[in-house]
Amino acid sequence: MNSLEQTLLTRLQSAGPISFAEFMDTALYDRLHGYYASGKASIGGHGDFVTAVSSGPLFGRLLARQFQEMWTLLGSPGSWVLVEQGAFDGRLCCDILEGLHENAPRCFEATNIHLVEPFSQFQLRQEATLKPFAAKITWHRSLDTLPEFTGVHYSNELLDAFAFHIVRRTEKQWLELKVTAQGRSLAFTPHPIRDPALIARTRELPAAEPGFTTEVCLTHLEWLQKLSRKLISGWVLAFDYGMSQQEIFLPHRKNGTASAYHSHQRETNLLARPGDQDLTAHVNFSALTRDAHATGWNLAGYTDQHHFFTGLAPLHFKDATEKLSVPQQRELLMFRTITHPQLMGIQFKAWCLSQGSLPGLRGFTHASRSMSGLEASQQT
Fold first, then answer.
1. How confident is the model at residue 333 (pLDDT cuts 50, 70, 90)?
2. Are 260 and 281 members of one domain?
3. What's the whole-model pTM score?
4. String of b and e for 50-70 (b: at least 16 CB within 10 Å)?
């Protein structure tokens, strides 16, 4: 038993059960022992999981192509802002800036970077990675201190890290699975739902068989509300693994999508070793988009990562009839990694919102810009 588990057991024994959202918030973001807040999180081949960024710089360089188009669509302003939230070690931001510097110098000169980073140890990593671009970068502890801006808020695997509740269907109603103490162990127990916001959200869920378990995130809405007050004109562009609500409620997902990961292994017990493993669930992009519409955003595009980067590929790669250099061959291999249907291409989605009426983006050439289209994107 680690120290955070002991702390949680003591708390539960005295105060009673807590929601999984509270447990997850503690397990990931406790200042001393949380998986992210304490700096334990490790990404890459020797870490707990891999991302598109850890596969090489192409992900960021292709995003730079999309950002260049966005800058042009905004009228090529002399100054604009890219905001990244959840930047980890700053590698993605660095790849983007290197891509802009090399391929879009005017856009690079106009670009200012704002990183939203609440944890000092990650800011130190970002400062080291981004040292060549230090003059362009400003840090913020939260969205609250971010100034109003014109540009793009972007993220990679941020949305799945928002704390969520777990609910289970009975014959008559949804119950919340809360975390409680059973002897010297943490366990789930079902409880009637008391939170008005969670009650309202379960009413939006489709019919499900008794025993069906799923996740509900309430904090995405607050995040969208804060961003809507900051972004004057531009986009929110997020990459994450997830699916439509139709897909989430297919019968073979009756046990939910919540997972824990440590050393590239999936841990079946979500409550084991709190603070030592990542906790996550697939993003419900239908619910997320409903929240966005309720907050005044427009859906600018939704597609899988394969189609998004295929749309951008002609802006980046040479004519296939020309002989490729060794670095170009390496980029093609990276491209297959981030777009291959059996790797990251289908499971990961690109989701984009716009503030105001803005033209379509190259990355969403083959994508939906409506809620009905998002639901029609069902994959099994």
1. confident
2. yes
3. 0.92
4. ebbbbbbbbbbbbbbbbbbbb
